[in-house]
Amino acid sequence: MRLISTTRALAALLAVAVLPLLLAACGERDAGPEIRPPAPPVSARGNPAHDIDPLRRNVPITTEVTPLPLANVENFDMTRQRAYPMQPPTIPHSIDGYQVDLNSNRCMLCHARSTAADFQAPPVSVTHYMDRDDQFLAEVSPRRYFCVQCHVTQTDAQPLVANGFRDIDEVLRSERMQ
To answer: CB within 8 A of 7, min separation 6: which ones?
Structure first.
């Protein structure tokens, strides 16, 4: 029994390893898959990688760019108008060096409901003290704890792309005029 299985294994090995060599020597081998050189690199837009990307200040993608200097954060400390309902208010001051992690939230030093009046800062909205079932909590809800998920500082940077956003009041006003 063992001799039969060994013989079958040898026959299979010969069929896989030796038979293609014999056929190739006789000239009866299949052509097989055609090997082609790799295609040129393609960017996400489908253009060759040497195309110009306007967000890179018209420098080819294959060239490393020196980054622009960081924009200056505006420090106006005044409430900005919101562009749409439920828009999170922007942060009107620099937050460089603020620690916001699991153990500490520097924003709450001034914006906690208990200390906001002392620092003349707007208190955190009551919605930040509600859990997802609309139950009020004693502390800020964990889902609202990391402020910069929604709130951002404003800078003096020029826009990278054109923006034609108009708030709803402006849209309604222009429709009335027509």
So the answer is: none
Q: What are the residues facing 178 on neighbouring strands?
A: none
The tens digit of pLDDT for each residue in 79-89 reads: 788 888 888 99
Stated length of the chain: 178
- Cα 168 to Cα 174: distance, rounded to the nearest angstrom: 10
Cα(142)–Cα(33) distance, rounded to whole angstroms?
Answer: 58
C-alpha to C-alpha distance for 126 and 151, rounded to whole angstroms: 16
Q: Structural domains in the chain? A: 41-70 (no CATH), 73-155 (1.10.1130.10)
Amino acid at 84: Y
Long-range residue pairs from 99-107, CB within 8 A, at least 24 positions apart, any chain: 100/145, 100/146, 100/147, 100/148, 105/140, 105/145, 105/146, 105/147, 107/147
Phi/psi of residue 149, nearest 5 degrees: -65, -35
Per-residue pLDDT, averaged over 135-162, amounts to 90
Phi, psi of 48 (to 5 degrees): -55, 150
Is the pTM above the cut of 0.85? no
